């Protein structure tokens, strides 16, 4: 295991680093040059501005670019620095990448609210939100280097060009490397406020859109990559919590004296919902946890049975209860009254667990005077880049230093900082000794924060020609945006639409799960379309062509998917293809080919094709990898994964009873076609996953003539449909 090295503060870094840091101010992207050897000038700059570095250049020409996003396998440690390096004209072979400090004022990108900033690696927003920031910063860094060379050579800057970390003066055949320019760097009085036409022409790209190996892969392959779970600090102790499997229940510990007498146990720390233990070793902490004798109170979840609740949800859908309006377009009631035919269908989905590979963990050290804290964690960050620690411990935010580590899977779970807050409270009790908190897999399954369970009632109207004139969509479930996102049909020309969320709550912990509400809502919408097509004897592709008449980019993905999947070609015996469209930033159409074992009810996905419009593609290979990963995760959740609750208690506990997709179930092939675009990059991490449920269900419908309407499609449910 790795040993954590001492982390310098930003001020220490600036005073001791060699070379030059290009600074970006809080008021905008305004690089300011400070020679790191000139300590007095550094101090003067820091006194005048709260600044930090985006990039560092040494006299040897080494370039360090700082990545503001979490890296959980999605490639941010490459895609964002590539944007910077492209506009800077940097020699990529000399570039290193490090995590930036977790300082939103400096490193934040545009948030969801106007004028806000976030460091939040969620919602497929990372590349899109940082695209203008990284390009502009890189272009301004290049301008500073050219300006400095012009002054050094006493030539007009207009005569200079750059290439591969060199400034070139063609009239005199002179050139200087960026490293050689470090002693001569000067800051212009005014920096250009670059416009789109002043950035590099895409035809001249050397990095963006090319095959660039990801920067963090070598250390992940050779085992030197440091995740939070690898952190070891001197005098460190371990913490665990027993949280039970009845969400919201409060514990009463009956054998505290016995637990404290166990070898290695240091403290027993009660929480409102758990009992915490700190010990000298993880083994001692886990041993003590097994011996806890706890009486658990009842909670809101007591008596709740997840597989029986759908009957209640149907009654809510039938009722006149008013919910929150999500979409209101045209006159749906009139469309239903004047329809030649209407279709009404209910769709259901069970709870799903995140199943991230690395168990939740954090290491926190609180100072002896309780006025500062160091945090080592793999986090998707959040609206508070200090992850709630300052408020919880009453420590000034500037005295909390978060050392972001690689994440062993996120999927939305690590955008929730409950595990960080738990570690902070344990660390406060043990100060100044550092505490490592580890959740076991059983902790994470039984006390998980799940993708919500929902029932969705959809009603569609068609005219005499079979065109869809209206769509009504009711979602019944808990979680607000967790269940209500992905309902708006921006790319379908349906003139009258109504969507409404009717809230329920059972005290079960919930959280964003990859693609949030898109996975379940697109399942319902896309499956209803195919059921309409089958009833009308229409081709599902043709039905979507008509709906996409006013959305040419969406239509282009449909046409490409049709082409690469050979939709109209002959089917193999016992197989059928299904289609689905989804948007989650990027636009994608997916087609899958399946077969079904009529005896066991097992669905086998043989091939999957996706056509994707994600705007400018920064890393083509990585985009394809993201699509493949999203599809496979989607297949796992659609065919296998299921959390059930009986009398309020989570029934699953580990991967023996929470089933995941196995290697034998992986498709024979996955093909992704990337559609060229000059639009701003869109997220790709959450576009593939919502395609899976509806594409599989639609293929099943074509193969058997029977619909699948309840996720997951377990063999038992499939057999019930086949035999029903």
CATH H-level name of the largest domain... which superfamily?
A: Aldehyde oxidase/xanthine dehydrogenase, molybdopterin binding domain
Query: Span between N and C termini?
Result: 55 Å
CATH architecture of the largest domain: 2-Layer Sandwich
- Contiguous uncertain segments of 5+ residues: 1-21, 23-52
In CATH terms, what is the fold-level topology of the largest domain?
A: Aldehyde Oxidoreductase, domain 4
The helicity comes to 25-40%
Structural class: alpha+beta
Main sheet: strand order:
13-14-11-22-18-19-21
Q: Indicate the CATH class of the largest domain.
A: Alpha Beta
Summed up, the domain count is: 3
In total, the number of strands is: 32
What global shape is seen?
A: globular
Radius of gyration: 28 Å
Largest sheet geometry: 7 strands, mixed
* Mean pLDDT value: 92
* Total count of helical runs of at least 4 residues: 21
Beta content comes to 15-25%
Detailed description of the structure:
It comes from Kriegella aquimaris. This is Isoquinoline 1-oxidoreductase, beta subunit. One of its GO terms (molecular function) is oxidoreductase activity. The chain has 724 residues and is of the alpha+beta class. The protein has 3 domains: 10-212, Aldehyde oxidase/xanthine dehydrogenase, molybdopterin binding domain (Aldehyde Oxidoreductase, domain 4); 228-299 and 360-438, Aldehyde oxidase/xanthine dehydrogenase, molybdopterin binding domain (Aldehyde Oxidoreductase, domain 4); 309-351 and 450-723, Aldehyde Oxidoreductase, domain 4, CATH 3.30.365. Helices cover 30% and strands 24% of the residues. The protein has 21 helices and 32 strands. The strands form 8 sheets. The protein has a 7-stranded mixed beta sheet with strand order 13-14-11-22-18-19-21, sandwiched between helices. A 6-stranded mixed beta sheet has the order 16-25-24-23-17-32. A 5-stranded mixed beta sheet has the order 2-1-3-4-5, sandwiched between helices. A hairpin with a 2-residue loop joins strand 29 and strand 30.
């Amino acid at each position: 295991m790795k040993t954590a090295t001492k982390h310098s503060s930003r001020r220490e870094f600036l005073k001791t680093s060699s070379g030059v840091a290009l600074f970006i101010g809080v008021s905008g992207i305004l690089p300011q040059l400070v020679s790191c050897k000139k300590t007095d000038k550094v101090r003067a700059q820091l006194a005048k501005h709260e600044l930090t570095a985006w990039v560092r250049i040494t006299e040897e020409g080494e370039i360090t670019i700082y990545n503001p996003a979490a890296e959980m396998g999605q490639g941010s440690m490459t895609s964002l620095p590539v944007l910077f390096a492209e506009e800077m004209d940097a020699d990529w072979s000399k570039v290193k990448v490090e995590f930036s400090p977790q300082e939103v004022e400096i490193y934040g990108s545009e948030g969801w609210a106007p004028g806000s900033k976030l460091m939040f690696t969620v919602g497929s927003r990372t590349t899109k939100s940082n695209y203008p920031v990284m390009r502009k910063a890189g272009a301004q860094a290049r301008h500073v280097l050219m300006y400095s060379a012009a002054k050094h050579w006493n030539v007009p800057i207009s005569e200079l060009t750059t290439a591969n970390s060199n400034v070139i003066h063609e009239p005199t055949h002179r050139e200087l490397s960026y490293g050689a320019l470090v002693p001569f760097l000067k800051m212009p009085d005014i920096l250009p406020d670059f416009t789109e036409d002043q950035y590099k022409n895409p035809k001249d790209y050397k990095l963006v859109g090319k095959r660039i190996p990801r920067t963090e892969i070598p250390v992940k392959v050779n085992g030197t990559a440091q995740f939070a779970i690898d952190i070891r600090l001197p005098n460190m102790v371990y913490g665990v919590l027993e949280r039970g499997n009845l969400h919201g229940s409060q514990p009463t510990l009956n054998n505290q004296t016995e637990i404290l007498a166990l070898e290695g146990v240091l403290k027993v720390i009660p929480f409102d919902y758990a009992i915490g233990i700190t010990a000298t070793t993880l083994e001692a902490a886990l041993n003590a946890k097994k011996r806890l004798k706890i009486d658990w109170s009842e909670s809101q979840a007591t008596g709740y049975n997840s597989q029986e609740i759908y009957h209640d949800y149907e009654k809510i859908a039938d009722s006149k209860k008013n919910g929150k309006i999500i979409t209101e377009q045209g006159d749906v009631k009139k469309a239903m009254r004047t329809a030649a035919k209407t279709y009404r269908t209910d769709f259901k989905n069970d709870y799903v667990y995140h199943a991230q590979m690395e168990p939740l963990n954090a290491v926190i050290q609180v100072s002896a005077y309780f006025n500062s804290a160091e945090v080592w964690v793999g986090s998707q960050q959040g609206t508070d880049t200090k992850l709630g620690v300052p408020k919880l411990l009453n420590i000034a935010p500037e005295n909390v230093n978060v050392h972001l580590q690689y994440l062993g899977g996120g999927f939305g779970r690590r955008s929730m900082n409950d595990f960080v807050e738990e570690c902070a409270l344990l660390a406060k009790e043990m100060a100044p000794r550092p505490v490592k908190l580890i959740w076991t897999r059983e902790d994470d399954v039984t006390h998980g924060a799940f993708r919500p369970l929902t029932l969705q009632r959809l009603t569609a109207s068609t005219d005499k020609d079979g065109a869809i004139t209206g769509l009504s969509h009711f979602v019944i479930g808990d979680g607000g945006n967790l269940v209500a996102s992905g309902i708006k049909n921006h790319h379908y020309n349906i003139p009258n639409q109504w969507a409404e969320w009717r809230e329920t709550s059972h005290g079960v912990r919930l959280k964003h799960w990859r693609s949030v509400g898109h996975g379940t809502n697109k399942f319902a919408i896309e499956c209803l379309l195919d059921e309409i097509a089958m009833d009308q004897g229409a081709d599902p592709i043709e039905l979507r062509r008509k709906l996409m008449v006013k959305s040419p980019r969406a239509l282009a993905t449909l046409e490409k998917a049709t082409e690469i999947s050979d939709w109209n070609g002959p089917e193999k015996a016992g197989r059928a293809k299904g289609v689905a469209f989804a948007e989650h930033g990027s636009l994608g159409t997916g087609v899958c080919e399946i077969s079904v074992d009529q005896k066991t009810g097992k669905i086998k996905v043989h091939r999957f094709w996706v056509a994707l419009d994600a705007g400018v593609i920064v890393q083509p290979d990585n985009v394809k990898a993201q699509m493949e990963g999203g599809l496979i995760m989607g297949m796992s959740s659609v065919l296998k994964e299921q959390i059930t609750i009986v009398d309020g208690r989570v029934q699953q506990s580990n991967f023996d009873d929470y089933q995941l997709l196995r290697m034998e179930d992986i498709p024979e092939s996955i093909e992704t076609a990337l559609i060229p675009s000059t639009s701003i990059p869109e997220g790709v991490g959450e576009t593939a996953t919502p395609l899976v449920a509806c594409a599989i269900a639609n293929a099943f419908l074509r193969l058997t003539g029977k619909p699948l309407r309840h996720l997951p499609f377990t063999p038992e449910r499939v057999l019930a449909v086949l035999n029903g």
